[in-house]
Amino acid sequence: MACFFPPRILLLYILLTPFFLGACGGSSSGARFYTLTSLGFPGEAGEAVADSRSAIVRIGPVEIPDYLDRPQIVTRTAVNELSLGDFDLWGGSLRTDIERVFVENLSVLLAKDHISVVGWKSRYPTVGSVPVWLDRFDAVPGDTVVLRARWGIHGKDGKMLEVPRDMMVTKPVKGFGYSHVVAAMSDALADLSRNMAAGIKSAVAKQDADQKNTGNPPR
After folding, report:
1. Which carries the bigger pLDDT value, residue 13 or residue 199?
2. Higher-confidence residue: 36 or 48?
3. What are phi and psi of 155, to 5 degrees?
4. pLDDT band at residue 7 using 50, 70 and 90 as cut-offs
5. Residues 110-128: pLDDT tens digits?
6. Residue 151 lies inside a defined structural domain of this protein
7. Do the Cβ atoms of 134 and 149 come closer than 8 Å?
8. Into how many domains does the chain fold?
């Protein structure tokens, strides 16, 4: 059976429909997107740049906790309580962004040692790989960001060159906004990258020395 609406109700429906559709669809227009910041690129500020003599090291795989593997930026409101930024989101995959920052940071830190750094999916022949596991990476706005990670170094034959190292980094969050949280997270990754760079440099030098002692050309 056909349904008929009084003309005044029908007119009101027509006039208000765009308003309600705009209200429902407009919530995403206020979203803000963030990316982590690296130390830069080799050569940007006059640093050494890796060349054809460089050993190549692959970073990855990078693993992050399930609670971080989402578009929203996660902050901590209590020891066992997390908060999701409904309108403050990562510009892409957080895991991929962290890997990018490691590659860029380590490229800067190791260029003068003739060590190049590439991402996990790179097809370049490498002398080793550096898997990284993040157990915790979150912040209390206006307080502190905590990064707890483990990383190791595998040779090109898959054998472990460095026993996995545990490191915890804390950095101050200099404000209550999400931009301050992301800046502090970037600072924490920079500190971890410096620790990793020292280990990678030592492992590559040791591998070169071992190959020389066995009569094989280094790298």
Report:
1. 199
2. 36
3. -75, 175
4. low
5. 999 999 999 999 988 888 9
6. yes
7. yes
8. 1
| Residue 96: burial class (beta carbons within 10 Å; 0-12, 13-18, 19+) | middle
- Residue 216: band (very low, low, confident or very high) from pLDDT cuts 50, 70, 90: low
Angstrom distance (rounded) from CA 19 to CA 168:
50
Smallest Cα–Cα separation from 104: which of 34, 38, 151, 164? 38
Q: Which of 134, 125, 124, 110 is nearest to 204 (CA)?
A: 110
CATH number at residue 179: 3.40.50.10610
Taking alpha carbons only, the member of 199, 177, 196 closest to residue 188 is 196
> Domain residues for 81?
31-213
Q: How far is CA 3 from CA 6, 97, 166, 186, in A?
A: 10, 55, 70, 61
Q: Structure pTM?
A: 0.81
CB contact set of 68 (below 8 Å; sequence gap of 6+): 74, 94, 134, 137, 138
Residue 208: CB atoms within 10 A of its CB come to: 16
Tell whether 17 is covered by a domain.
Answer: no
H/E stretch holding 107: helix 94-110
Q: CB within 8 A of 9, min separation 6: which ones? A: none
3-state SS class at 29: helix
In a domain? residue 49:
yes
Residue 214 has pLDDT above 90, yes or no: no
Give the pLDDT score at 193: 98
